[in-house]
Amino acid sequence: MDRRNFIKTIGVVGASVLPARSLRSEEIANEAVEFKGILVDTTRCAGCQNCSVVCAESHELPEPDLDEMFEINGNRPTTPDQWTTISRFEVGDEEIYVKKQCMHCNQPACATACPTKALLKTEEGPVIWRGDKCMGCRFCMISCPYDIPKFEYDSPNPRIMKCVMCWEKLNEGEIPECVANCPEEAIVFGTRRELIDQAKSRIYTEPDRYVHEIYGEHEVGGTGYLYLAGVPFDQLGFKNDLGNVAYPEYTKTFLYSVPFVITLWPAFLLALHNATKKDEKDVEGGM
Questions:
Q1: pLDDT tier for residue 177 given thresholds of 50, 70 and 90
Q2: Distance between CA atoms of 3 and 272, rounded to whole angstroms?
Q3: Among 6, 82, 183, 208, which residue's beta carbon has the most beta carbons within 10 A?
Q4: 3-class SS at 160?
């Protein structure tokens, strides 16, 4: 066992899971950054499911079964193979379609719960997963208020699977695939401030068309995905009991009181995992 790497991993990861002071400084820094986001207008969505198809193609996921999608009249969850889903709701005599994916929270609970920072809130806004840092604890799945991160249980090399807002394309100056390929222009990309202004403008201009609320503007501290709708959001499968406080805010006092040995336990497991992997490579190299 490589003692130096073991201790190094303990130190680095241990520091990352004691965020009570440093977390606040990160939040202050993030407040000055103009997050990018996406506005979904459910009154414009025609249920073509093109966003699901292009999402799968661009991320090398299995082609979604479009016929199976609409067999369910209700909230359709994301899966490891499908990061974007379209749900169909019947409200009165109207059919309404709702796009679902990671919400890219301003202060994501998944990233705060991740002891190795495999889940990361980028400065630009998307919440991404970094496989080289993941230890497989799945704390992100437990902590997410929207039940989004999914684990590849059937894979020999499992990953955490979720929408990353086409992070690679954003780095190249392009826009997310779902936005670029929506024929109804029901999905709009921009800075979060611009999107909120645009959503408010639509509500003001057509007050009878929209519920006078932007879902995601305040929920759990605000999210990168924002929604407009013509009927109450709870009729479209949206959670309305999450509150407006970012989930990491609830953990700060707790983190101060957690015994040091418990706080370092995830770091210890990761260090042990890394050291064991090195031992296995040494053994294979010596055979």
A1: very high
A2: 10
A3: 82
A4: strand
Pairing of the two strands 36-41 and 225-228: parallel
108 exposure class (CB count in 10 Å sphere: 0-12, 13-18, 19+): buried
Read off the CATH number of the domain in which 211 is found.
Answer: 3.30.70.20
Is 126 among the domain residues? yes
Tokens of 154: 């059937």
Predicted local distance difference test score (pLDDT) of residue 268: 52
Domain count, the chain: 1
Contact criterion met (CB below 8 Å) for 224 and 38: yes
Does some domain include residue 229?
yes
Among candidate residues 116, 107, 112, the one with its CA nearest the CA of residue 143: 112
Q: Mapping DSSP to helix (H, G, I), strand (E, B) and coil, where does residue 209 land?
A: coil
Domain range holding 214?
Answer: 28-248
61: left (phi over 0), alpha (psi -120 to 50) or beta: beta
* Interatomic CA distance for residues 251 and 255, integer angstroms: 6
For residue 263, tell me if it sits in a domain. no
Q: What is the pLDDT of residues 259-277, one digit of tens each?
A: 444 445 555 555 555 655 5
Which of 30, 42, 45 lies closest to 127 in space, CA to CA?
30
Q: Using one digit for the tens of pLDDT, what is the confidence trace for 100-154? A: 999 999 999 999 999 999 999 999 999 999 999 999 999 999 999 999 999 999 8
Find out whether 222 and 82 touch, Cβ atoms under 8 Å.
no
Do the domain assignments include residue 110? yes
Strands 160-161 and 150-151: antiparallel
